[in-house]
Design a protein that fits this description.
The structure is a homodimer. With about 325 residues, chain A is α/β, with parallel strands linked by helices. Chain A has a domain of about 210 residues: HAD superfamily/HAD-like (Rossmann fold, 3-Layer(aba) Sandwich), CATH 3.40.50.1000. Chain A contains 13 helices and eight strands. In chain A, strands 1, 2, 3, 4, 5, 6, 7 and 8 form an eight-stranded mixed beta sheet that branches. In chain A, strand 6 and strand 7 form a beta hairpin. In chain A, helix 3 packs across helix 6 and helix 7 packs across helix 9. The first copy, chain A, is globular, with a radius of gyration of 22 Å. The termini of chain A are far apart. The model of chain A has no long low-confidence stretch (mean pLDDT about 95). At the A-B interface, helix 1, helix 9, strand 3, strand 4 and helix 10 of A face helix 1, helix 9, strand 3, strand 4 and helix 10 of B.
């Protein structure tokens, strides 16, 4: 027997076992039986049944997921903001002017109330100051290292692992059924990319997000992308369908979010012809994660919650629909 | 025997035959033996040899290709400009002001000399006027239909098939070796996407190019992307590495272009650490396609041709390196 045919026969055995066990077992073991799980399983079956009325060719099986609060923890403060705060403290010695300039002064003094009061504008200033002025590679190294090495105080695991086990199963289940999975986040594209592949199995080119502008610099044989202190694109609210058009070029057939910022993405997805699925994760689990919705400043879920039923969107109830929240450490 | 195991055994037989024939046969049959072909085969072998000094993990095997003049014909006039001219003639009844406004007036009168004299600025005006003011889906339908149905006068095939057979083989060969293949074009992203999958096997989300701005509009249950009469991004020259950063998020290890507009992309690619390959297609074949380089206004290849040897870039000579130019009709 040649080496090649030995390898092929081993391959068959593995494929056979895998196929058998996939049929026998539950592709979404961390999802409790219920309306949400049923809607997902039914949708995937419908769009993958050849000859069925809802069949969708694999190339068109585009699934988009928000990140903050949909794939990883966002409450009570976006992970990227925590990173920006840490970075600002690290960079402070190089910025003596921050000692007197708000919101940097407050941040360095640990006065988070004043930082909070500076609002989105203040937060953006901190983000831009800490996310620019370096090469793309340097930033990726910094963000990746911070996410892998900074421990979440409550969940006792690195921020890169504060991700939801049921969603990892869903992403894999979709890919196993010929879907291409994308992240469409309001958060920074360059912040998520360094860990998106190891965390979610999603390669960098399938990650979209907000960005700073950047430029190409070539000098003395070194060619680099340099990040500039200027907003490039805001991939949030009505920016999400625009980002999807520019980046993917196809309308998704499934979209999953958790806040009103995802409404336009989900509306754009479910308004398409044929079978579509829109889902919102509702954070209802104060015990295992957090409970927040209409009145929260982070991940506000109000209008979408109101409209979900009439629009046919599935509201996933974290407490009831999810058996486990996080992957094993 | 179960249906599943019958299918698996058929699968094995096919896989076995495919593996055997892939080993026996040439993956680049339309490439003549020579330095260019050797450099490509050697590079792919080196980066895919596990344990070898130049091994690159599959996730990092990013290959980027320019489109105009690299994957399809661009001479003597970019295909997209021809489309814009045809569209302008079609739209003219709705734009009575074009009868007196240049360069539209000249275009409608068939006075291409005046159109040409209006330069890039005039051309851009025509492109913007014909590429905006409709939904994304409408534009995709129009561009796709034009490319599939408009015959190239000399090559007697639709423009969508004025693509280079040796490059189709190279794209497939790279994908067969674990590469992800991307288009990084100065041309319009939305113009190429409708045919990129059927022409090159490249899905829309792996196509980058220049764009007009767009916005999301939702009304009466209809949710659409609308194309605006305003430049969004110019994916050319130093814009190419920026576009690659924003869209792919990884530095390519192989890049293929044909003009000075591709220099920054190829410089960015080959300046990376480890084994890299940069290639330029030199149009040297007046008989089977076209011969042009330093003095051409379309696809100028001057500086890159000068620098290629010292930078280790491969200059592919169309006349000598390519056995055939186009795929069978």
């Amino acid at each position: 027997m040649t080496r090649l045919s030995t390898r092929l026969i081993t391959g068959v055995a593995i494929a056979f076992l895998a196929a058998t066990s996939a049929r026998a077992s539950d592709p979404l073991p961390s999802w409790n039986a219920g309306k949400s799980k049923q809607a997902i399983l039914r949708f995937v079956e419908d769009v993958t049944t050849q000859g069925g009325p809802d069949y969708v060719a694999p190339a068109e099986r585009i699934a988009t997921f928000d990140n903050d609060g949909t794939l990883w923890v966002e409450y009570p403060m976006y992970t990227q903001a925590l990173f920006a705060f840490d970075r600002a403290k690290e960079l402070a010695p190089k910025h003596p002017e921050w000692k007197t300039k708000q919101p940097f002064k407050a941040l360095l003094e640990g006065d988070m109330k004043t930082v909070g009061a500076s609002g989105i504008k203040g937060l953006l200033e901190i983000v831009i100051a800490t996310h620019s002025g370096m090469t793309a590679d340097q930033f990726a190294d910094e963000a990746g290292a911070w996410l892998r090495n900074t421990q979440h105080p409550r969940f006792e695991r690195p921020y890169a692992r504060c991700i939801y086990q049921p969603q990892l199963e869903l992403l894999q289940y979709l890919r196993d059924n010929g879907f291409t999975t994308f992240i469409v986040s309001g958060g920074g594209i360059a912040f998520m990319r360094p860990i998106a592949e190891e965390a979610y199995g999603i390669p960098p080119h399938q990650v979209m997000g907000s960005s700073v502008a950047s430029e190409y610099r070539s000098k003395d044989g070194k060619s680099e992308i340099v990040r500039l202190p200027k907003i490039g694109f805001i991939d949030d609210k009505a920016g999400k369908p625009v980002g999807i058009y520019e980046h993917i070029g196809r309308r998704p057939i499934l979209a999953f979010g958790n806040s009103d910022s995802d409404m336009q993405m989900i509306e754009y997805t479910t308004a398409g012809e044929g079978r579509r699925l829109g889902l919102f994760l509702h954070h209802t689990d104060a015990e295992r994660e957090f409970a927040y919705d209409r009145k929260s400043h982070v991940g506000t879920l109000d209008e979408a919650l109101e409209d979900a039923e009439s629009k046919g969107w599935i509201v996933v109830d974290m407490q009831n629909d999810w058996k486990t929240i996080f992957p094993a450490r």
